[in-house]
Write a structure and sequence with these properties.
Blueprint (H helix, E strand, L loop, with lengths): L1 E10 L2 E7 L1 H6 L5 E5 L6 E10 L4 E7 L3 H7 L6 E2 L1 E6 L4 H4 L2 H5 L3 E6 L3 H13 L5 E6 L8 H7 L3 E5 L6 E2 L2 H11 L6 E5 L2 H13 L4 E4 L15 E4 L2 E4 H4 L2 E3 L5 H11 L2 H10 L1
Parallel strand pairs: 8-9, 8-12, 9-10, 10-11, 12-13
Antiparallel strand pairs: 1-2, 1-6, 2-5, 3-4, 3-7, 4-5, 13-16, 14-15
This protein binds nicotinamide-adenine-dinucleotide and FE2/S2 (inorganic) cluster (FES).
FE2/S2 (inorganic) cluster binds next to helix 9.
Length: 281
């Protein structure tokens, strides 16, 4: 059993939990994910790691209540436990595999959308701990939906917050901030890491392709069981077929076929859609 040592609601329907899982905490790296199972009958829920404390042996997860499993998870309190907490899974972020000295010469831009702010945070924090200040754009629907603002302020070099409705800081979507920084202010970035809803990553990639800015995305949203078995996370990257949970979750965003992945994601939600997918494979 994996004890929840801290649980709090960050904002409406978005929850943060620190879970005692010393073996995962010891070896996990930014970019990887875990699979959480509540109880004997519980579904497997893949979640990108938001933070970890190797000393305390805890791993932080952030999730939004979108289905029955996450709604049940949200009811758990400090002192309750998960039946399983499997990980770390997937590949670590490409950035942290790079040589620190070469990273120090790079200007890095993170683009975080909504709940995607959670998986962006450990990467920005890791860079800060290694003496690298990255620029971070965080987009949220409204001020109330913004998460991890204080944490991100401490970890980011420059933090640009934008809300779709203009209720806080800038008004507009993350793509407008990218245009402002690159086209109006003339900032030259070497790479961009965009994590958020699929539609956001698609439009960020369309823009950064035009701007000739290499972009990495995290395809956690299309995962279902996270084991390489269900086939839900199949995605075409360039001319190759990949599984987000085994080969990713991070990929070169300019090579990802987002339309196909989003269509597949929609079909996978219904039993009929899953049958059609099986027949096609
Ligand atoms: P959201 O719908 O509030 O969007 C967040 C921001 O993304 C918006 O404020 C906007 O700035 C930007 N955005 C959205 N649509 C855009 C578009 N068409 N063009 C340009 N920018 C756009 O986000 P949310 O409700 O928090 O998203 C939840 C989704 O995030 C879920 O589907 C979940 O699966 C996904 N998610 C992804 C990851 C990941 O690893 N990629 C991790 C956690 C959650
Ligand atoms: Fe099922 Fe990747 S999530 S195969």
């Amino acid at each position: 059993m994996f004890e929840i040592v801290n649980a709090r609601e960050l904002t409406n329907n978005i929850y943060l939990m620190d879970v005692k899982a010393p073996r995962v905490a010891k070896s996990c790296e930014p970019g990887q994910f875990v699979i959480v199972i509540m109880d004997e009958t519980g579904e497997r829920v893949p979640l990108t790691i938001c933070d970890y404390d190797r000393k305390a042996g805890t791993v932080t997860i952030v999730f939004q209540t979108i289905g029955a499993s996450t709604q049940m998870m949200a009811k758990l309190k400090k002192g309750d436990s998960f039946k399983d907490f499997v990980g770390p899974l997937g590949c670590a972020s490409e950035l942290i595999e790079e040589d620190i000295e070469s990273l120090k010469n790079k200007k890095i831009l993170f683009v975080a959308g909504g709940v995607g702010t959670a998986p962006v945070y450990p990467q920005v924090k890791w860079l800060k701990e290694h003496g690298i200040d990255a620029d971070v754009i965080v987009g949220a629907k409204t001020k109330d939906m913004l998460i991890l603002e204080d944490e991100m302020r401490k970890a980011a070099g420059n933090l640009y917050i934008t809300t779709d409705d203009g209720s806080y800081e800038r008004k507009g979507m993350v793509t407008e901030v990218i245009k402002d920084l690159v086209q109006n202010q003339g900032i030259k970035y070497d790479c961009c890491i965009a994590i958020g809803p699929m539609i956001m990553m698609k439009f960020v990639c369309l823009l950064t392709k035009e701007l000739d800015l290499p972009t990495i995305v995290s395809l956690n949203p299309i995962m279902v069981d996270g084991t390489g078995m269900c086939g839900a996370c199949r995605v075409t990257v360039g001319d190759e077929v990949k599984f987000a949970c085994v080969d990713g979750p991070e990929f070169d965003g300019h090579l990802v076929n987002f339309d196909e992945a989003m269509k597949r994601q929609q079909m996978y939600k219904s039993e009929e859609g899953r049958e059609i997918l099986k027949l096609q494979e």
